[in-house]
Amino acid sequence: MKNNDIIITVYGAQQICASCVGAPGSKDTYEWLQAAIARKFVDDDFQFEYVDIDHPPDNDQKQNFVQKIWDDELLYPVVLVNEEIVAEGVTMLKKGLSGIGKPRGGHAGNRKMTQATEGVGYSETSHTF
């Protein structure tokens, strides 16, 4: 991993959160964010990680975070960008991309998406999955 890579982590479970009935599942949200980010930030370096809260990895930091979800402090799926929470529960594109900031690549579409996530006017930002 390079120092300037962006790490996007989604914590979730196969079962949909009771507060998110009718919303996409955690794994769907994870895959949707991967696709959306790949389309909008083609020149940037991203790493994606999915953490199954029913079977967390043998990592104290991740297990502690999972415990917060089980203690009802957070709704899943929880989306983190570089270990900072940017969305929980029903994830909208604008929220899911909010921690990314300005793209480093020179793709014109990147700048358009960045401007849209900072303000209003980009129709895709107002839709859930």
Automatic annotation (TrEMBL):
Record Pfam families: DUF1462
| Residue ranges with Polar residues bias | 112-129
Q: Per the record, which residues fall in region Disordered? A: 104-129
User: Which InterPro entries does the UniProt record give?
Assistant: DUF1462 (IPR009190), Thioredoxin-like_sf (IPR036249), YuzD-like_sp (IPR038218)
Q: What is this protein called?
A: YuzD family protein
